[in-house]
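My current task is to audit a protein record that another person submitted. Alongside the sequence sits a line of tokens, each denoting a local backbone shape. Please read both lines and tell me whether the tokens look consistent with the sequence. Do not assume that whoever made the record got everything right. Thanks in advance; the entry in question is below.
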Amino acid sequence: MNGRSALRLAKLQDALASGGTLHLRDAAELCDVSEMTIRRDLTTHTTAISLLGGRLVMANYPGVTPIYDLTEQQASHYQAKYSLCQRVLAFIEEGDTLFIDCGSTLIPLLSQLSHFRELTVVTYALNVANAVTALPNVRLVLLGGLFYAASQSFASDNMAAAIERLGINKALISAAGVDLERGVSCFHFHEVAPKQAAIATAMQRLLVVDASKFGVVRPAYFAALGDFDVIVTDEEGAPKLLRGLGNEVPEVTIA
């Protein structure tokens, strides 16, 4: 961490030491930098400060419930997500039908699919669908329903049944929390049904998560680690995962 970033983070921790929250705009003014600089400080350095719903808060502050913000998630651990997606690319073959769930983890993969001559992507996420439309040789199946703006995703009562009728070669699944005892979880309950349907239907199931997700439990449980054939993670997350899995089924692939 460079000296200026360290000074800014120390100043913000002092401001939050007595409890409460600090709006991102006010944090930027306090440090005399842009909001983007504060975001970069928080996402590229280890710190006890979390950015939740546009506000800074100490990670151990009691009573704070995390709020999912897709913009914040896209900026968080981007380089790790890009590396994970490069590793996922090795599992994809011409002619595959891929299920890609919502969130930010798998977005860097989409730009890397342009060299394929024939692929199909099934998704319930608007941000994924928008990226796929720019790929001339990739067919898109967008599962619709009620739109949830926070996660840029859709939900409907018959979505799981629609997924189960499709021939999916690979299900690429992301998560907001991975705990060795409590399993794999996400922020939103409407994501559970499509994730579980894809896991049940696909020929191969890949869980794609960076180290920041380990030891975290989110509200909506959707799978056990043993439900996946492959877990793609980074060097930081792999040791803890390998120690905890023991003789469990999934293959662990390190990006």
Remarks:
- The domain at 3-58 is CATH 1.10.10.10 (Arc Repressor Mutant, subunit A).
- The CA atoms of residues 47 and 77 lie 13 Å apart.
